[in-house]
Design brief:
seven-stranded mixed β-sheet; binds iron/sulfur cluster; Dimethylsulfoxide Reductase, domain 2; single chain; binds ligand MGD; 3 domains; Rossmann fold; binds molybdenum atom; alpha/beta; 740 residues; Barwin-like endoglucanases
Length: 740
């Protein structure tokens, strides 16, 4: 069993370049047997990539130039992703916890492990009821697997308690989009960015986290577009923008309200659009009335003249594209922030056309598809609502069960952890989720995990959370399975299988079906290939807002992906939403938006401060996020040597003025404390961050983990955690921390 979890141990074990490359026959020297067109396993850009395969091993890659979204481009993670497969930590067997074993686990035959899982599920559900067993899933899974997991929870286990890691990612945007438009998807294909003369980017580190989108933004700039960036840090994309608004973390809604205030005052509005295509403007106008530039400047920390400039550029633009990401969404009022952004788009009337674009930037590889087909606690396939009797009837019929047998809504991912802590939930299955690193206040998460009667994790690496498991089952890497994912634009694309699973590892969907069989509840879990799951999913999604019924694997191949909704096989798909006359099962011709009257909704979104504001004890704002070379909890990218080298350790980013105040220089060790924990890291002193704010990337475990500090406050609607702001204090560290 592999031990090398953190990169210190990893570097000691394998040297700076690691066994990652020496174990491989490098592509340059060896002719591949085959080349497989597929997509990168990491972020929501889903770049096209061609994997070179020799003897059941991925030995290299080539860009896939024909794939129209990325046109051959890849970022450092995509370039190095192929190095994971032959990593020595790859799980090849099932494992059982055994404190007497050197690594805390010992190997176990796969069949035996599955029997133990089924035995534990039966016992816990018999003794404590069906909801006492919970499931945590992930949006890096293909849509087929995400669908299967939702069905497995509701049909096989009969538990209400399933939720997914998109709860930490896209849910504020999803909730805001549904409230305003009745549908949750990027409104436009990315080519529309090129037709914008004004691009507004809020809370998105585009260059590091959505690298291909950078190319679109820069091409638009070459064509004359102006760019506004709103961020507490001057990120790489901000260095090339025309107007940078250095917002204080947690204050975006005040800014959007201030912009709308000026748009109304100067009459920079599309009256026709507001009158004919929307409802609710007057109430919003009333709400933004007090948001004068002076008040907006005071709350947001952005100079008044920059607010005037931004409002004028946005208000008078002829065409535009507004995009945002987690910087405005990871807040206890994340949904309000999203609604504020949508309000300024609706007031401009620039949506639903080539020159009118709006989107949230998808995070995970299948962040979009993974949130549509039922692995969310309140959702059924086709973006249906588990509390809606008609929706339940339809899905129950597809699943061959009675609607009353189907559980109701469960609780969100963090609440699942709280219920584990309180003893209400006794058993857990996790797949494609590493909550011990990724959830806020993660010392609490670790303590809760140790209270479980039984925990099974399915992964291809032993992630930090899986170290708390009783059984670990070896799942499949991206290139060992096939299925669809939906990328950033809403385009459904196909992941193709390149190699077989090694050792006793199994495709994730087979493992789930094996557990159903061992529970003696195989009904509905006898699929023989992903295509069969997809075909059932197509039927289950038919008539829902996220309608995939007209999408087939062949059609995806033929047209480089199909944009949903796609209600029939002869329908080409819907690249741009909200165009007059486009298919819409809710409005049925009444208008372009997904409400019975076909109109979009303005929503009142007023400012409330972050859950934990600064005070004299904790005077600095901490915000957290990413660096280009690492991905999420780092389980995968901390095992890829060249990526580790690029950014080996998390560092705490701070302004020189703040560094001087606490008496440190670049490279000194700094202890950051919040009300929940502390963390000692080296200072990265930069002039590109607000002096009242520090930033820590969160990809590392243990004592390097930013989530020791973060707060578990959540948005009341979306239940997203407030990763982007909490209060901390800093001091020069007394001593250099231990390597771990
Ligand atoms: N390299 C890399 N790329 C990734 C990922 C990764 O882990 N690594 N993960 C993928 C996933 S799942 C996601 S969700 C996306 C995330 O993509 P992004 O949301 O772009 O990335 P983050 O770093 O989380 O945060 C974005 C920016 O928000 C800013 N910010 C912080 N607080 C505030 C605030 O209150 N207001 C505003 N306006 N801005 C604020 C931060 O300074 C940061 O620059 O990236 C995807 N791509
Ligand atoms: N402080 C702070 N915390 C954050 C954030 C932040 O900005 N700041 N961002 C949040 C966001 S946006 C996100 S998306 C979450 C992500 O949080 P996590 O979901 O915990 O992160 P991942 O690293 O994707 O963990 C997924 C696990 O799934 C495994 N995996 C990947 N693909 C597959 C597969 O196909 N099959 C199986 N069986 N396993 C697979 C990986 O090996 C890994 O162990 O983190 C959140 N946490
Ligand atoms: S991580 Fe994202 S941008 Fe980088 S290659 Fe993969 S899909 Fe493309
Ligand atoms: Mo995310």
């Amino acid at each position: 069993m592999a031990q090398a979890i953190d990169n210190t141990a990893l570097l000691e074990k394998f040297g700076p370049h690691g066994a990652f490359s020496t174990g491989l026959r490098l592509a340059a020297n060896v002719e591949p047997d085959r080349v497989v067109n597929t997509h990168c396993c990491f972020c929501g850009q889903q770049c096209g990539i061609q994997l070179k395969v020799k003897d059941n091993e991925v030995i290299g890659f080539e860009p896939w130039f024909d794939f129209p979204f990325s046109r051959g481009m890849l970022c450092p993670k995509g370039v190095k992703r192929y190095l994971q497969g032959s990593h020595p930590d790859r799980l090849l067997h099932a494992y059982q916890r055994d404190p007497s074993a050197p690594e805390g686990f010992r190997e176990l035959g796969y069949e035996r492990a599955v029997e133990q899982v089924a035995g534990a599920i039966s016992r816990i559900q018999r003794e404590h009821g069906p909801d006492a067993f919970a499931i945590l899933t992930g949006a890096s899974l293909t849509t087929e697997k995400a669908y299967l997991m939702g069905k497995f929870a509701r049909v096989c286990l009969g538990t209400a308690n399933i939720d997914y890691n998109g709860r930490l990612c896209m849910v504020s945007a999803a909730a805001g989009n549904k409230k305003a438009f009745g549908i949750d998807r990027a409104a436009n294909p990315w080519d529309d960015i090129l037709h914008a003369d004004m691009i507004w980017i809020s809370g998105a580190n585009v260059a590091e986290c959505a690298p291909i989108t950078t190319d679109y933004v820069w091409r638009a700039r070459d064509l004359g577009a102006k760019i506004i960036v709103v961020d507490p840090r001057i990120t790489p994309i901000a260095r090339t923008c025309d107007l940078f608004l250095p917002v204080k973390p947690g204050r975006d809604i005040a800014l959007f309200n201030g912009i709308l205030h000026l748009m109304i005052e100067r009459d920079w509005l599309d009256h026709d659009f507001i009158q004919n295509q929307t409802v609710g403007f007057d109430k919003v106008a009333e709400c933004v009335n007090p948001w004068t530039p002076a008040r907006t400047a005071e709350v947001t920390g952005i100079p008044e003249r920059l607010i005037h400039q931004a409002a004028e550029w946005w208000g008078t633009a002829k065409s535009s594209f507004l995009m945002h990401a987690r910087g405005i969404e990871h807040h206890s009022h994340g949904v309000q922030n999203v609604l504020g952004a949508i309000n300024i788009v609706l007031a401009s009337g620039r949506i639903g056309r080539e020159g009118g674009g709006y989107a949230t930037i998808t995070g995970q590889g299948n962040g979009q598809g993974g949130r549509e087909h039922g692995q969310k606690c309140d959702q059924l396939p086709g973006a249906r609502d588990i509390s809606n009797p008609e929706h339940r009837d339809y899905i129950a019929k597809v699943w061959g069960i009675k609607p009353e047998e189907m559980p109701g809504p469960g609780v969100d991912a963090y609440e699942i952890i709280r219920k584990i802590d309180s003893g209400e939930i006794r058993g857990l299955l996790s797949i494609c989720f590493n909550p011990k690193i990724s959830l806020p206040d993660n010392n609490f998460v670790a303590r809760a995990l140790d209270k479980l009667d039984f925990y099974v994790a399915i992964d291809f690496f032993l992630n930090e959370t899986a170290r708390h498991a009783d059984i670990v089952l070896p799942g499949s890497l991206h290139e060992e399975d096939e299925g669809v994912v939906t990328q950033i634009e809403g385009r459904v694309i196909k992941i193709n299988k390149a190699v077989e699973c090694p050792g006793e590892a199994r495709q994730d969907w087979r493992i789930i079906q094996d557990i159903a069989a061992a529970l003696d509840r195989p009904h509905g879990f006898t699929f023989t290939e992903p295509k069969e799951i997809f075909d059932e999913l197509r039927t289950a999604s038919r008539g829902g807002v996220a309608d995939y019924s007209g999408i087939t694997y062949e059609k995806i191949d033929n047209q480089y992906g199909v944009f949903w909704p796609c209600p029939s096989e002869d329908h080409p798909g819907t690249p741009r939403l909200f165009e007059p006359g486009s298919w819409n099962p809710v409005a049925k011709g009444a208008g372009p938006f997904y409400f019975p009257d076909g109109k979009a909704r303005f929503n009142v979104a007023d400012y409330t401060p972050p859950a934990e504001d600064v005070d004299s004890e904790f005077p600095i704002m901490l915000t957290t996020g990413r660096v280009v070379s690492q991905f999420l909890s780092g389980t995968q990218t901390r095992r890829i040597g060249p990526l580790v080298e690029q950014f080996p350790e998390p560092r705490i980013e701070m302004h020189p003025q703040l560094a001087e105040r606490i008496g440190v220089v670049d490279g000194d060790w700094v202890t950051t404390e919040s009300r929940r924990g502390d963390c000692t890291l080296q200072a990265l002193v930069v002039t590109t961050i607000r002096p009242d704010t520090v930033f820590i990337p969160y990809h590392w475990p243990g004592r390097k983990s930013a989530n020791q500090l973060t707060i578990s406050a959540q948005d009341p609607i979306s239940k997203i955690p407030e990763y982007k702001v909490c209060a901390v204090r800093l001091r020069k560290a007394e001593r250099v921390p231990d390597a771990k």
